[in-house]
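CO-FOLDING WORKSHEET

Operator: S.A.
Ligand of interest: nicotinamide-adenine-dinucleotide
Run index: 373
Mode: holo prediction, single chain
Checklist:
[x] sequence pasted
[x] SMILES validated
[ ] output reviewed
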Amino acid sequence: MKTIRIGIIGGGLMGREMASAFARWCALTDVTVRPVLTAVADLNPATLAWFDAIPSCTQKTTDYHQLLANPEVDVVYVAVPHNLHEKLYCDVLAAGKDLFAEKPFGIDLASARRILDAVRKSGRFVRCSSEMPFFPGAQRAFELARAGSFGRVLEVVSGFHHSSDLDPTKAANWKRLNALCGEGGVLNDLGMHACHIPLRLGWRPSRLFAQLQKGYPQRPDGKGGLTNCDTWDNAMVHSWIRVGDHDVPMRLEMKRLAPGATNSWFIEILGTDGGVRYSTADTKALWLFERGKEQFWKRTDLGFGTPFKTVTGGIFEPGFADVIQQMWAAYLMEREGQLNGRFGCATPEEALATHEIFAAALQSQANGSVVSL
Ligand SMILES: NC(=O)c1ccc[n+]([C@@H]2O[C@H](COP(=O)([O-])OP(=O)(O)OC[C@H]3O[C@@H](n4cnc5c(N)ncnc54)[C@H](O)[C@@H]3O)[C@@H](O)[C@H]2O)c1
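OUTPUT RECEIVED:
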């Protein structure tokens, strides 16, 4: 296998998730590349110490510029708060490295436009992290929709729910502050998850109406006091998309206040002849609608039908860590020109398209109006 040397900037929640995916790369059986973590940069020395467990990671620095100057780094993955995306992504490109970076790819639409501009000028291979479509159920929904299996599409629902903001005692972090998360709040946080498959199918809203809600205005600051939280926590975006010759309603749901939900990604596509429902809340269950003399919703238990084959038994169930690894396989294999028709990671253009949706949703909320894109 060809070795690709990776540097991580931001070793928090996602930085460590990615490092763990590299550590069990031997699970993959049909890839020609192998990521090796060589460097990590994070402001927090305690976070850097976690990477002591990875022997290949020889550079640990609090200054990301040192990582960018390291010739032993081919690809840089960046997972930092949204207010830093534009600066860091552009610095990575200016250093002549390929980039895999977290959504939402800039704190707002203007920032996303400048990032896309820098990506195009750089000529580097760049993709945006979005792992949920790599679940086997999501792949099946995508392939069925792409093949036009549902007859005339009647409606689409795509979303991501969790409920961790329901707990008022949970300390605030940067994701609850507009200055760091962006004015889009939950749209910036969860929007790419809801938009990735629709956008890949060419289902871009032409008009939308948004309902946004805030959560608790104050939370513990983790130091004994309280801090103000000003981000939108829930977003419902009611839109029109064009599928074939028809205008079709599509609802995008992004919620951090969804009672009982923990990281539930879901999609539902209903048509005149068929339909599909899939949610990671019931990871294995794929529901398919069939219209015949009678109408049926059929359920099947999916196994480990991931795009990139693994040693994992075919009937075993996949999880978050698996789809993160699948997403990396897609990034690295596409970089080698070996995706071979498999599902590719979100593109910078798709990331920009999500920001166009978020900006329209904010405008809709502010004016109580339907906004054309
Ligand atoms: N794909 C997903 O499922 C998913 C899930 C969660 C978060 N995210 C995205 O990942 C990104 C990071 O989120 P997170 O949850 O990992 O955040 P986090 O707060 O857990 O980690 C961010 C890390 O960045 C570090 N950092 C901040 N400024 C830095 C700088 N100048 N140089 C180096 N390191 C710096 C912090 O010390 C921290 O360790 C965001 O864009 C977020 O939207 C994606």
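REVIEW:
Residues 26 and 311 are 8 Å apart (CA to CA).
The first strand starts at residue 2 and ends at 9.
[x] output reviewed
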